[in-house]
Design goal:
Blueprint (H helix, E strand, L loop, with lengths): L6 E5 L3 H13 L3 E5 L2 H7 L6 E6 L7 H10 L6 E5 L4 H9 L4 E4 L4 H33 L3 H11 L4 H8 L3 H15 L4 H10 L6
Parallel strand pairs: 1-2, 1-3, 3-4, 4-5
Helix pairs in contact: 6-8, 7-8
């Protein structure tokens, strides 16, 4: 049993299937959220905590394949398992190509589903944690004033305080104040740490 209840998001237009998956997953220790269609899930996606998505592949409106395309476009790190009906192997293969972790053919064994969800979450968690760290750095960068951002870019370009001061026609003393603000807001104790953070967030210009 996992220390913290891992989240599973079930997307299926079949109410009986949703109910049975809810019962199975809840009793297996997962925190389950049910969605009748993919649009409802996508609308909530930005506010959802990391978890495994379990989606039917054939659904009215946005089907499982379209859902995968949209999640890929948002750069979501949620692992996705798709459920397919008998004979839907070509769809399942397409889903895998679009980033689905695995697929299950209905009807499937409960134990197999539980094992697949646990594996999917375990494998995707490090990437999700990385993603949240990157997001945190981006938030810090966004908190910089325009002038602080200019100073940070100058530091990233390897310029000295004096050169940055000359470029923006302000005193080196003022640059030192901005530089200290940048370090504080970015949570960096050294220039090398600031460079690492900026690289992680993709904020370094080539």
């Amino acid at each position: 049993m996992m220390a913290e209840r891992a989240k599973v998001y079930v997307i299926d237009d079949d109410e009986a299937m949703r109910d049975s998956l809810n019962f199975l997953l809840d009793s297996s220790g997962f925190e389950v959220t049910l969605f009748e269609h993919a649009q409802a899930f996508l609308d909530r996606l930005p506010s959802l905590g990391f978890g495994c998505v379990l989606s039917d592949v054939r659904m009215p409106g946005i089907d499982g394949i379209e859902l995968l395309k949209r999640m890929k476009a948002t750069g979501s790190s949620f692992p996705i398992l798709v459920m397919t009906g008998h004979g839907d192997v070509p769809l399942a293969v397409e889903a895998m190509k679009l980033g689905a972790v695995d697929f299950l053919e209905k009807p499937f064994e409960d134990e197999r589903l539980i094992a697949m969800i646990e594996t999917a979450i375990r494998q995707a968690e490090p990437a999700a944690k990385n993603e949240s760290v990157t997001q945190d750095i981006l938030v810090r960068i966004a908190s910089l004033s325009p002038r602080e951002r200019q100073v940070m870019d100058g530091l990233m370009a390897g310029l000295s305080n004096k050169l940055i001061a000359r470029e923006y026609d302000i005193s080196p003393r003022t640059i030192e104040v901005y530089r200290a603000n940048v370090m504080t807001k970015m949570g960096a104790n050294s220039l090398s740490e600031l460079v690492r953070l900026a690289m992680r967030a993709g904020a370094l210009k080539d």
